Amino acid sequence: MANEQDLMERIVALAKRRGFIYPSSEIYGGINGFWDYGPLGVELKRNLKDAWWQDVVRCPPPGPDGKPLQMVGLDCSIIMNPKVWEASGHVVNFNDPRVDCKQCKARFRADKVFTVIAREGENILLSVGVEADHEDPAKAVALAAANAKARRRLEEHADRLVWTVVRADRAGQGVAALCPLDGGPLTDARKFNMMFKSHAGAMEDSASLVYLRPETAQGIFANYKNVLDTTRIKVPFGIAQIGKAFRNEINPRNFTFRSREFEQMEIEFFCHPSQADPWYAWWRDARYKWYVDHGLKSSKLRLRDHAKEELAHYARACADVEYEFPFGISELEGIANRTDFDLSQHQKFSGRDMTYFDDETKERFIPHVIEPSGGIDRAALAFLCEAYCEDEAPDENGAMQKRTVLRFHPRLAPVKAAIFPLVKKDGMPEKALEIYTALRPHMTAFYDEKGAVGRRYRRQDEAGTPFCITVDGQTREDGTVTIRDRDSMKQERIATDAQTLLGCLQDRLRR
Ligand code: ATP
User: Fold this and answer.
1) CB of 331 sitting under 6 A from ligand 1
2) Does residue 332's CB lie within 6 angstroms of at least one atom of ligand 1?
3) What is the pTM (predicted TM-score) of this model?
4) For 194, phi and psi rounded to 5 degrees?
5) Over the chain, what is the mean pLDDT?
6) 334 pocket-lining for ligand 1 (C-beta < 6 Å)
7) Residue closest to 104 by CA, chosen among 25, 9, 2, 187
8) pLDDT tens for residues 188-226?
9) Three-state SS at 485
């Protein structure tokens, strides 16, 4: 755990140092739960969004029947008529249970705080409050936080210990909820609505109250009829949207994982009620595969089906794509069969007809909805954590040096190719600039002529650039350059004419 914490600190430091992610408004001391993406981070995020849009909207995989999937995109306003949020249930139900420490006044999400107790008979060997996403990792967090003496005692008595783990909002019955910071007693859980409020227009009264959307999904439901009426699309079809969402999280934490402003990538897939189960299974597997295909290949990725008791009252099935971050296993994306709940609610609250008429079967029905709902920032963080690697690379003199490398999938890598002249003379910079200029219209390229070439390679490794092209003394003689692979560090010579170089890079980027 300590190592994992250390690893996360190194990833956060690299993200800052290399311009992936900065704390928001840092010159004023930052603001909790808000982050800015720097030059490399914004490219990573854009690549992620482009890949998703391409694979989901423009060219999705064929559906379960082998036919092309019908998908369209949408871009809704962030602020909508507040009735949307009444219909969706967010005004009444978008609450997180909140607890406060009576001693230090710190505030926590009650379902993310656990009291962990280890007993040997009547004897209590450990009783602490910890923060964790689920009950399972809470015990490990408690053990990691215990001092060496306590840990030794627990290990000595391990086979006789009885462990109890109780969530703060389920405490009582002899177990007190304890503060993870100072061990003080926690208040009972209280409801806290997580929607950010604002006012539209000059008057600040209840009539002008509006919300910053806590999810992009409701904008899709609100426009479902518009899309049906203005396109020739037929059920089954999906509407996809990428956009900002805002949640006044009680306890933003784990870097960008739980932020107050973030981006979502969401799909609402509308189908006949009788087809909802197979479509759910298809989307669940397709979305899991998408993460694997983009580099989350390790055993850290998993697909977890929700147990019946975990499901929302309207959901028929739900699964989470989860990733084992250095701070624990957490959700990247949820795939849910939401039945006709949302469209029925909007029909009820808006008075508009949300039914679909199938002119072939002459059947009228409210479509059922499969919702794959993911977070761009969480995905970016998972790809960053998975890509992060420390190994060794030779310097200019052949001596092995520690290097940090981000092994991003080429499709996600912020910069695809870096171009260097070996030295700043003998026409090398001119040739390198010529190559750089030829590549720029086709891919994100970077030109660098400063410092020793080994150091330039290592800087690109740290940024996750898959290929470095170097113009050297041989270039003028035989018209070739070296192309170095980030992962294998192998260099090959290839011809410098734009066609060959571009073809070679594009071929490798596709692999
Ligand atoms: P959690 O239980 O972690 O709060 P959730 O189940 O409430 O997440 P959803 O409402 O299903 O999340 O939102 C869909 C996706 O939006 C999540 O899978 C996640 O990727 C992203 N997301 C939700 N809340 C946040 C947040 N505070 N910061 C960053 N991303 C988020």
Assistant:
1) yes
2) yes
3) 0.89
4) -95, 5
5) 93
6) yes
7) 187
8) 998 889 999 999 999 898 889 999 999 999 999 999 999
9) strand
